[in-house]
Write a structure and sequence with these properties.
This protein is α/β, with parallel strands linked by helices and about 260 residues long. The chain is built from ten helices and eleven strands. Strand 7 and strand 8 form a beta hairpin. Helix 2 packs across helix 3. The longest helix has 18 residues. The structure holds 6-O-phosphono-beta-D-fructofuranose. The site of 6-O-phosphono-beta-D-fructofuranose has 15 residues, from helix 3 and strand 7.
């Protein structure tokens, strides 16, 4: 059926808000699994929302992935905010360069006329390196900025898709399957009840840090992500969801 724009989405938005217990929901038309232009619309919606909340001298922590890369593509100068700094929420040298949080941060900062800092650490890390790396002064400094960020921009992924994309071992994938992992965010894998069933050893933002942020904005769309979105929001850590029509409708049909 043909969607006649805003009013129909308003209803959908408030249904999602109720279902996921959220402060803000923004829905764009279409299915980003099917069309790249829908992902661009998600990016634009995120940039627009960011412009309404950001103030000068703020730190904005961002994650990697293709959804965040699209937010960076759509970024515009932040008119009412000067001297903002973009920091990667986590290390991510495991992803393709264009999808790494570092790359995305730099691009966002350039387009927003802001500053950026980098976090040069692999993701995930071995136990041994982890303890050494987090003691490095430059890493420590960025981690402090990440933890103090008042705005966090992130995406949500399907658990198994993300584990494979990060080249997790078969052992890890089997474990995620047995534990019924549904979603992944910030290196945390959750089941459909929003319980953490596995955590990759990553340097950067931890779930507990999110409690201190004012706005934790999730950008995730596509019918295939509906279960992942639902699972992540059981945690109650993000207060804004920017998604698409297909994910929203699928979400309402789910458990
Ligand atoms: O790797 C960073 C990340 O934000 C993950 O936490 C999330 O699961 C994934 O990217 C989503 O990726 P995409 O936007 O490409 O679906």
């Amino acid at each position: 059926t043909f969607m006649n724009g805003i009013s129909e989405f308003r209803v959908l938005e408030s249904q999602i808000k109720d279902k996921l217990q959220l402060e803000h929901v923004i829905i764009v038309s279409g299915d980003s699994d099917e069309q790249q232009t829908v992902k661009e619309e998600l990016g634009k919606a995120c940039v627009q929302f960011l412009n309404t909340i950001v103030t000068s001298n703020q730190t904005i922590a961002v994650t990697g992935g293709t959804s965040m890369a699209e937010v960076a593509n759509q970024m515009k100068p932040l008119h009412q905010a000067t001297n903002c700094t973009f920091v990667p929420a986590r290390g991510g040298l495991g992803e393709q360069v264009e999808n790494q949080a570092n790359t995305i941060c730099a691009q966002m900062a350039k387009k927003a006329n802001g500053n950026y800092r980098m976090l040069y650490v692999p993701d995930p890390l071995s136990e041994e390196s982890y303890h050494t790396i987090i003691e490095e002064p430059t890493v420590k400094e960025i981690l402090q900025m990440v933890q103090d960020a008042k705005i966090v921009l992130h995406s949500i992924g399907d658990a198994i898709t993300m584990a494979k994309r990060r080249k997790a071992s078969q052992e890890v994938i089997d474990r995620l399957t047995t534990q019924h992992a549904v979603s992944e965010t910030f290196g945390f894998y959750l089941n459909r009840h929003g319980e953490v069933v596995y955590k990759a050893r990553t340097v950067g933002l931890q779930l507990a840090d999110l409690d201190k942020a004012q706005y934790v904005i999730a950008v995730a769309g596509g019918k295939s992500k509906a279960n992942a979105i639902q699972s992540y929001f059981k945690l109650g850590k993000s207060n804004v969801l920017i998604t698409d029509e297909a994910a929203a409708k699928e979400l309402l049909e789910g458990y």
